[in-house]
Amino acid sequence: MNLKDLKYLVALADTGHFGKAAERTFVSQPTLSAQLKKLEEFLGVKLVERQPKNVRLTEVGKQVVVRARRMLDEGDEIIALARSNTDPFAGKLKIGLIPTIGPYLLPRVLQKIRKAVPQLQLMLYEYQTESLLTRLRDGEIDLGVMALPLLHDGLESRTLYEEAFTVALPNHHPLAAKNHFKVQDLKGQTLLLLEDGHCLRDQALEVCSRVDVREVEDFRATSLETLRQMVVAGLGITLLPELAVESPFGSQRGLTVRQFSNPKPSRTVGAVWRKSSTREAAIAAVCDVMHGVMDKKA
After folding, report:
1. Which residue in 31, 283, 16 sits closest to 145, CA to CA?
2. 190 confidence band (pLDDT: 50, 70, 90)
3. For all residues of the chain together, what is the average pLDDT?
4. Are 129 and 146 in contact (CB under 8 A)?
5. For position 33, which CATH number holds?
6. Which three-class secondary structure state does DSSP give residue 162?
7. How many structural domains compose the chain?
8. Residue among 141, 159, 145 nearest 274 (CA)
9. What is the DSSP-derived secondary structure letter of residue 118?
10. Closest CA to 266 of 148, 187, 169
């Protein structure tokens, strides 16, 4: 048994298809199939159920895949450790960001990160919070950027910046005449929210928990941009994080955005990584840039 065989098995588990698994691992399909049969013979168990146009793992195969992922992650960590010993700022750094942060933070920081660590190759991904944390723990990404606080063993976190919430209303809304809002001003209003799985949904509900607001049950947005369009259409009001308001879409026609009075409700945005990570130097460099950019903005 070797790491390559385990890589073939994990690829098959991810794709559910011999051909696609072979493409992912850069071997021919017969080679991949033959190596998996040898692995089964070595272990003395059947790992894969082979049926026409249908490939699935056996129960023991699924359990082997869980452990194989860990072994492959450890193998990657060994390689990363060796490379970071010669140049900690070279190679790939996989960064996952939640959808309510990534599109608005990245345009501000990417060029500065490239200038600060030019040898570092950034691989950028977008996931909802739970999916991001799963991939972070499994070693699929090196660094997560998300809302804090975070209570997870085995992970470290660092605050990058505080981001205030704003109120977004259609231009014709009666409250649009107000210059500043208190949370109490939202009492009795119809609130538009993102779908389940977005932490911003929970944060907005927490802000509004002190007053009586009505959530629109028939409409749930999948992104902030969809949420913005729903407000413009007059379906209700919503809370938007400050960076989203300052994006190119923030001042679109038909939308009024107002600040909260002090103390402004806000969220803490931070970086999260594994305590066991061998990329701490690169992670620290990237976080320093993000924090520096957002600190100057404040």
Report:
1. 283
2. confident
3. 87
4. yes
5. 1.10.10.10
6. strand
7. 3
8. 141
9. T
10. 148
Encode pLDDT of 237-282 as tens digits: 888 899 988 876 556 788 899 988 888 888 999 999 999 888 899 9
Phi and psi at 180, nearest 5°, equal -135, 155
Same domain for 196 and 112? no
Query: Burial, 239: exposed, middle or buried (Cβ in 10 Å; 0-12, 13-18, 19+)?
Result: buried
Q: How far is residue 199's CA from residue 182's CA, in Å, rounded to a whole number?
A: 22
Q: Which residue has the tokens 């919430």?
A: 165
* Domain termination site, one of 32, 48, 83: 83
Q: Structure pTM?
A: 0.71
Closest CA relative to residue 80, chosen from 141, 2, 13, 165: 141
- My answer on whether 68 and 212 are in the same domain is no
Length of the chain: 298
Q: Pull the structure tokens for residue 77.
A: 């960590």
| Domain stop point among 83, 113, 131 | 83
Amino acid at 219: F
Q: What is the span of the domain harbouring residue 107? A: 94-159+280-297
Q: Which of 65, 106, 73, 64 minimizes the C-alpha distance to 274? A: 73
